[in-house]
Specification:
Length: 345
């Protein structure tokens, strides 16, 4: 009885988890990325050989079991054979050949995905407990938790960490490289379809490891260049309502020591860069949609919703204060860039 109850409960939870997952089709077999195309090709070839070997071995096994089974009143051991040179040479050479082919294909794949194309934009990725900083040195632009990239161009990453070991991974695109404090690791990938790709820290790094996510937003090249140009020139707009103005004041007092908003006195670097936060599709390192109903509890007490978050709680803020902050953060926008309607991949 207990077993039935427990297993139904497990199935129910699994169902809920799947239903709750807003992310579509997170897979390393996404062939719209050159790296994953190489890797999936190798995977299917290897699977093909494995299936062939499985069929031959099990076929021979089943055939022998049926064909040479004891029949009628046969008793004792059947006639014994010892050695068959031709057969033994054959079953050594064939596997050797298969291993050689797989070795060659694997080496080819490793070189193909390990060598970044000469052409490509550079991004410096820094992992923090529990969020990501992205800096584009060629454009002098910084974003956090959402990486904007151009479709059809390689993006080369220099990855490091400011605290513990993390791992940078956008499964549909490739990557997965450790972010190690004091060390720079390198990887690259390229998106061939526009969309919002899911990213996840892939190295257990503390209480909110599972909540250390990000998004890769791939847009047409022209839109990317426009975004970079606008982001580089960005200056936070002047508040247009008393509420935004109040939000700006509270931000300057309580938040500016950790967060940067380009074009203002807020230049903190302990937390994510919040310049053009209004353009963000997600919040809390890719965990929630960027909507007021999630932003308010986040500002009041982020550890309540994200265990281990390094952002302190603000119990002194009133409901009105928090709404003012939400209005202010939402006003920080680059006009003309709405990524929320891009397909999720
Ligand atoms: C002591 C430093 C510190 C202070 C002060 C601080 N924050 Fe944060 N904040 C952080 C850190 C660290 C994170 C990242 C937490 C995480 O995702 O694990 C963060 C994350 C955020 C995020 C989510 C950003 C994203 O990319 O998802 C918002 C929004 C935010 N803070 C707003 C505020 C506001 C508003 C205030 C002032 C009321 C404030 N913060 C004060 C450190 C701080
Ligand atoms: Cu991590």
């Amino acid at each position: 009885m207990l077993r039935i109850v427990l297993s139904s409960l497990g199935l129910l939870l699994l169902g809920l988890a799947l239903a709750q997952n807003d992310v579509q089709n997170v897979t390393v077999f996404d062939t719209s990325s050159p790296i994953n195309r190489e890797v999936s090709q190798l995977f299917w070839i290897t699977m093909g050989f494995a299936a062939l070997i499985f069929t031959v071995v099990f076929g021979a096994l089943i055939y022998s079991i049926v064909k040479f089974r004891a029949r009628g009143d046969e008793k004792g051991e059947p006639p014994q054979f010892h050695g068959n040179d031709r057969l033994e040479i054959l079953w050594t050479l064939i596997p050797l050949g298969i291993v050689a082919v797989l070795f060659a294909l694997t080496a080819k794949t490793l070189f193909a995905i390990g060598t970044p194309p000469e052409e490509g934009i550079e991004v410096q990725v820094t992992g923090y407990q529990f969020w990501w900083d992205f800096y584009y040195p060629e454009y002098d632009v910084r974003t956090s938790n959402e990486l904007i990239i151009p479709v059809g161009r390689a993006v080369k990453f220099e990855v490091t960490s400011k605290d513990v070991i993390h791992s940078f991974w956008a499964p549909n695109l490739g990557g997965k490289i450790d972010a190690i404090p004091g060390v720079t690791t390198r990887t690259w990938f390229q998106a061939e379809e526009p969309g919002i790709y899911y990213g996840q820290c892939a190295e257990l790094c503390g209480a909110s490891h599972a909540n250390m996510r990000f998004r890769v937003i791939a847009v047409p090249e022209e839109e990317f260049e426009n975004f970079m140009r606008a982001a580089r020139a960005y200056k936070a707009p002047e508040p247009v309502s008393p509420r935004e103005e109040r939000g700006q004041q509270i931000f300057a007092q309580s938040c500016a020591s950790c967060h940067r908003v380009q074009g203002t006195a807020a230049q903190g670097t302990l937390g994510p860069d919040l310049s053009y936060f209004g353009n963000r599709t997600t919040l809390g390192a890719g965990v929630w949609p960027n909507k007021p109903e999630y932003l308010k509890p986040w500002i009041m007490n982020s550890t309540d919703v994200k265990p281990g978050s390094e952002m302190p709680a603000f119990p002194q803020l009133t409901e009105e204060d928090v709404e003012a902050l939400v209005a202010y953060l939402d006003s920080l926008r680059l006009e003309g860039f709405d990524f929320s309607e891009l397909p999720k991949r």
